[in-house]
Amino acid sequence: MLLKTFSLYLLTALSEILGCFLPLLWLSGRGKAWLLLPATASLMAFVWLLSLHPAASGRVYAAYGGVYVAVALAWLWLVDGIRPTLWDLAGVALVLCGTAIIVIAPRH
């Protein structure tokens, strides 16, 4: 269940980042206007993926936020070519620890 939850968070974050990155390429003059079509599809996928989370609540969004931070820094490195600093990695580790606590905490 934990792997499924994390995978869903990961896909959700990738969809959101891609949906925002493609219009940025167009707005900055580094891409064509047709990029807005896959950007729209990506943001639609993002919204759909959010609806698949077991409980659409503040807790789910808080946990997703931690995964988003990690994916955003991976994107920074893999797509933008900017290597994260040790401080970036420490921040991601801290955020993911918080995410893990939120996700795996016992519920009554």
How would you characterize the overall build of this protein?
With 108 residues, this protein is an all-alpha fold. The protein has one domain (2-104). It contains four helices and no strands. It has helices at 2-27, 36-52, 58-78, 86-104. α1 runs antiparallel to α2 (36-52) and α1 (2-27) crosses α3.
Low-confidence stretches: none
Q: Biggest β-sheet: count, sense, barrel?
A: none
SSE order, one letter for each helix or strand: HHHH
* Strand count: 0
Query: Mind telling me the C-alpha Rg?
Result: 15 Å
- Structural class by helix and strand composition: mainly alpha
| Percent of residues in helices | over 70%
In percent terms, what proportion of residues is strand?
under 5%
Tell me the span between the first and last alpha carbons.
Answer: 17 Å
Average pLDDT score: 92
Shape: flat
- Figure out the total of helices: 4
Total of domains = 1
Outline:
This protein has 108 residues and is mainly α. It is built from four helices and no strands. The longest helix is centred in the first third of the chain and has 26 residues, at 2-27.
Write the layout of secondary structure elements.
Elements lengths: L1 H26 L8 H17 L5 H21 L7 H19 L4
Quickly list its features.
108 residues; mainly alpha; 4 helices; 77% helix
